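Run log, item B.
One chain of 216 residues. Sequence copied directly from the ordering sheet:
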Amino acid sequence: MNYIEYMIRNFSMIMEYTENHFSLVLAAVIISLLLWVPVGVLITRNEKLASMVLNIANTIFCIPSLSLFAVMVTIPALGLGRRSALVALVLYSMMPLGRNVYQGVKVVDKSVIEAARGMGMNSWRILWEIQLPLATPVIFAGFRIAVVMTTGIAAIATYIGERNLGRLIAEGLTRFNIEMIVSGALLIALIAIALDTVLGIIEKQIVPKGLKVRRS
């Protein structure tokens, strides 16, 4: 009951933090889609470029989130606040989105591609009409991972000035206030679950059953 009472007493503040958290995640996901999906498609055309880009993505993904946020803050054009948080989150999304687009396109059955070439289709037409549609399940899986991951990592942005749900956890730890910690963690988890559920429903509508990625 203490948790519910805390949320009721601080409803306006929690709503502000929730809106800020959601808007940061939404902005990061949109930018990541616009950036990394084309990059993932582009690197399928050049293996050397693909190796370089994917190695960079893996390296960035291995950097602890707080360290990456701190590095972003040192860049004069970014500084404290949302711009640094957005850049860091977009960089983290490079690995699940870029890699899944690349792998999704590359694993398309070679015999299907050869049949398309035999019908007179050029490489770009094969990409847009055959490879990308067949790669949709793998790409969508990467997208869902990126969304859930971004929702969680966005909480760390509170340490560089973002007023989101991560602030409840950070301040709760400082004050040893269990209600604040649990409220922040619970709301972040609920946002992640809600977004993943919505994306799962969308995936069922747009991805044919025969192409769905099996989840263990």
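Observations after the first pass:
- The chain has one domain: 2-207.
- The mean pLDDT is 87.
Flagged for discussion on Thursday.
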